[in-house]
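Bumping my old thread because nobody answered last time. Still need a sequence for this structure:
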């Protein structure tokens, strides 16, 4: 299998993504305004609440069994390592570039959280259809590739909304004001009279402590978006796991002779719309980055270096080390997905998080524009090398 065959197989999916993304950007231009801001918002809600859960649930239900789920245990660990290493590299970048304080959460988020769902859902099936890949039959490759990508999306959503969401919150200006108000409330708690007996004084102190703990817990529950952590795609993954791993339910829904197979077929039909629609939305969102912001070019290049140079190199060491010690099975497609998780552009949902807290929204658009532009080159080269590595 020659280098040119691998390069062709790796470049075609990226080229398809670029074409559809460019169409999305064109439709989002002010002069066209078919995919304007309000339209993108409504379509994005449709993807978030309907298309993605259907896609994740139907693919996992069809391909995941109890035995295969046990064999995929390393993927959550692999994704966690991408977040940890990306955060460390992002903090080093902060020390070097010294961005504004409200942008530090954005920098850490873009360095740590890759587009673990949508990009894999686009790239992996497209790679499977190309000739010259080391993944065998295209039909089997697409089926299992979609399962790996769906599992990656579900796990990535949990990490993104539990970790990056709170990173941006902590470093945003709104968070700082909330902390100041909380401190002021703590300082205004009345002191107990010193003339009361020691037992009543101790009891009063305990009441004050309990009240403070309850108040802090309420503040934490308000700030941590638990509903976002259990996003619809995560709920879809849970449903897919239940159907795939419980044999009686699986026999009812999955297979050509299953009595309720129409439910699975309908979910697959709805889920198939997710990939092209999401790609159009990505292109539309990138238009905002053309308007520019105050973010420095060295900072943007630093984020691109973390995501496209240092993280993939770390990923090679981790995946090859896991393979050497027998932590993962020698499946070329599975290993390719694990490697690719280290080389993806930043998660697009980071833009949504910055909108929630009003911290660096325009800066995030510029970062996304540059990183996704560079991803066309980076993903092609790394995909080619990864396919050679797992062949």
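Sorry it took so long. Here it is:
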């Amino acid at each position: 299998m020659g280098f040119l065959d691998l390069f062709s197989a790796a470049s075609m999916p990226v080229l398809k993504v670029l074409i559809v993304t460019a169409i999305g950007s064109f439709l989002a231009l002010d002069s066209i305004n078919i995919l304007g801001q309000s339209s993108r918002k409504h379509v994005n809600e449709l993807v978030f609440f309907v298309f993605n859960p259907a896609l994740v649930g139907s693919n996992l239900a069809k391909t995941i069994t109890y035995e295969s789920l046990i064999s995929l245990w390393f993927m959550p660990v692999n994704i966690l390592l991408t977040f940890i290493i990306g955060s460390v590299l992002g903090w080093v970048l902060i020390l070097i570039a010294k961005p504004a304080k409200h942008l530090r959460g954005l920098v850490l988020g873009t360095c740590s959280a890759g587009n673990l769902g949508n990009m894999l859902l686009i790239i992996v099936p497209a790679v499977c259809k190309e000739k010259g890949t080391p993944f065998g039959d295209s039909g089997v490759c697409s089926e299992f590739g979609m399962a790996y990508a769906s599992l990656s999306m579900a796990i990535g959503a949990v990490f993104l909304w539990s970790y990056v969401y709170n990173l941006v919150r902590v470093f945003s200006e709104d968070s700082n004001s909330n902390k100041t108000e909380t401190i002021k409330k703590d300082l205004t708690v009345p002191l107990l009279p010193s003339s009361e007996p020691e037992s009543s004084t101790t009891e009063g102190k305990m009441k004050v402590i309990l009240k403070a703990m309850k108040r802090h817990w309420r503040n934490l529950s308000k700030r941590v978006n638990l509903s976002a952590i259990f996003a619809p795609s995560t709920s879809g993954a849970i449903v897919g796991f239940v159907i795939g791993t419980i044999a009686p339910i699986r026999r009812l829904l999955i297979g050509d002779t299953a009595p309720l197979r129409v439910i699975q077929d309908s979910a697959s039909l709805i889920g198939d719309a997710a990939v092209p629609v999401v790609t159009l939305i990505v292109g539309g969102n990138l238009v905002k980055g053309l308007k520019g912001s105050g973010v420095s070019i060295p900072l943007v290049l630093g984020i691109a270096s973390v995501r496209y140079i240092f993280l993939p190199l770390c990923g090679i060491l981790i995946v090859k080390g896991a393979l050497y010690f027998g932590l993962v099975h020698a499946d070329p497609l599975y290993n390719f997905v694990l490697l690719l998780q280290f080389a993806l552009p930043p998660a697009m949902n980071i833009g949504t998080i910055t909108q929630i807290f009003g911290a660096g929204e325009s800066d995030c658009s510029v970062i996304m524009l540059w990183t996704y532009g560079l991803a066309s080159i980076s993903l092609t080269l790394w995909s080619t090398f990864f396919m050679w590595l797992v062949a």
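Residues 3-183+233-390 form a domain with the Na+/H+ antiporter like fold fold (CATH 1.20.1530). Let me know if any region looks off to you.
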